Amino acid sequence: MTGRLIYLIGPSGSGKDSLLDAARARLAARGCRIVQRVITRSVQALGEAAQGVSPAQFAALQACGAFALCWQANGLSYGIPREIDDWLAVGEDVLVNGSRGHLAQARLRYPTLQVVLLTVDAGVLRQRLLARGRESPSEIEARLARNAQFGERLMATAGVHLLDNSGPLEHTVERLLAALADGHCARA
């Protein structure tokens, strides 16, 4: 049996990295790998457990087929290592921090992938983005507008499990684990 690919998506600032960090040990105990992304951002600026590379390094990795999935967003390149195919082939579940804008392409490559959309109240999201200090207020407002457009479309998409992260992180971890266990995010 092949493993299950769980594709976690949500706006920047929704808490995807915090959720993955908080759930990592419990997911590992259930046999689920969390994939480390490759991103064209310096290691100091990553803010997540990812591999930072230069744009030239990313292009070289992409050219040699190192990525199962890759995309560009917000001026950066993101890649999911090809090793996920090996893990899925031997029956391991794999959770990736994906892209809302790349969901259609990901579904083409992995038709049975399970989508978890991490949502957060717009006011909470604005505060989180301001607190991390990576972007100007106008850039944050542009992100919020983009999130509203994506959110409406994705919430109406079949096969997307919604997971609200507006409250305590531990509650979100519990709901994620329950959804993965009880079939809300079961294999198709």
Write the layout of secondary structure elements.
Elements: E1 5-9, H1 16-29, E2 32-34, E3 38-39, E4 51-52, H2 55-63, E5 67-73, E6 76-81, H3 83-89, E7 93-97, H4 103-109, E8 114-119, H5 122-132, H6 137-155, E9 160-164, H7 169-182
Parallel strand pairs: 1-7, 1-8, 2-7, 3-4, 8-9
Antiparallel strand pairs: 3-6, 5-6
Helix pairs in contact: 1-7, 5-6
Proportion of residues in β-strands: 15-25%
The CATH architecture category equals: 3-Layer(aba) Sandwich
CATH superfamily: P-loop containing nucleotide triphosphate hydrolases
Please describe the biggest sheet, giving its number of strands, its sense, and whether it closes into a barrel.
5 strands, parallel
* Shape, per Cα inertia axes: globular
Number of strands: 9
The helix-and-strand class reads alpha/beta
Instruction: Write the element-wise H/E pattern from the N-terminal end onward.
Output: EHEEEHEEHEHEHHEH
Helix content: 40-55%
Mean pLDDT: 87
Q: Give the neighbour order of strands across the main sheet.
A: 2-7-1-8-9
GO biological process, one term: organic phosphonate metabolic process
Catalytic activity: alpha-D-ribose 1,5-bisphosphate + ATP = 5-phospho-alpha-D-ribose 1-diphosphate + ADP
Protein name: Ribose 1,5-bisphosphate phosphokinase PhnN
EC number: 2.7.4.23
